[in-house]
Specification:
Largest sheet: none
Radius of gyration: 22 Å
Number of helices: 9
Number of strands: 0
Mean pLDDT: 88
Strand content: under 5%
Shape: elongated
Length: 171
């Protein structure tokens, strides 16, 4: 019994240190606790303790994840939603986190990544299809992607490369 209490205390200290360094979701911390303690019930208690102490918050994790993936990785809402859902984050928390994303910055990131990809595909006869697939795989909606791809291919954005109107390709 005393040995188990020592293990729990050491595990909690370890988990507090992890949670102090960055945000974690409950599932990841629970898995780490169970691996160290070898007991699901004790792992659940450890998670509850960390939540009560403010070290662990699904909302904080979801907000940080959404913000970072949108701003740094250039992911769209669909991909972020899917990944958070795969981590076991409740839908209402996911939707709240997605509201934290700056829509203008996300669209600018999408524009830049499509323009960059467009330059790589210069001369490709299937450029539009490839740009659409590329941007959709980043987690943006078809409507967003199609609008931006069309603007880039038809030269309607003064900040991005213009096309040669005779060939309908990126420069």
């Amino acid at each position: 019994k005393e040995n188990m209490e020592d293990d729990v205390t050491k595990t909690l200290d370890y988990l507090r240190k992890l949670c102090s360094a960055r945000e974690y979701c409950v599932r990841d911390i629970r898995d780490k606790a169970e691996k160290r303690l070898g007991n699901a019930a004790e792992a659940d208690k450890a998670v509850r303790t960390l939540q009560q102490e403010g070290y662990l918050s699904e909302q904080r994790y979801a907000n940080a994840f959404a913000r970072d993936k949108a701003a740094i990785s250039g992911w769209g809402a669909y991909k972020i939603r899917y990944q958070l859902s795969a981590k076991g984050i409740p839908a209402d928390i996911i939707e709240q986190a997605l509201k934290e994303i700056d829509g203008e910055k996300a669209e600018e990131k999408l524009r830049r990544s499509i323009a960059s990809k467009c330059a790589l595909l210069k001369g490709d006869p299937q450029i539009k299809i490839k740009l659409l697939k590329f941007a959709l795989s980043r987690g943006y909606s078809y409507e967003e992607v199609n609008k931006v791809v069309s603007e880039i291919l038809h030269g309607k954005n003064e900040n991005l490369p213009q096309i040669d109107s005779r060939r309908d390709l990126c420069p």
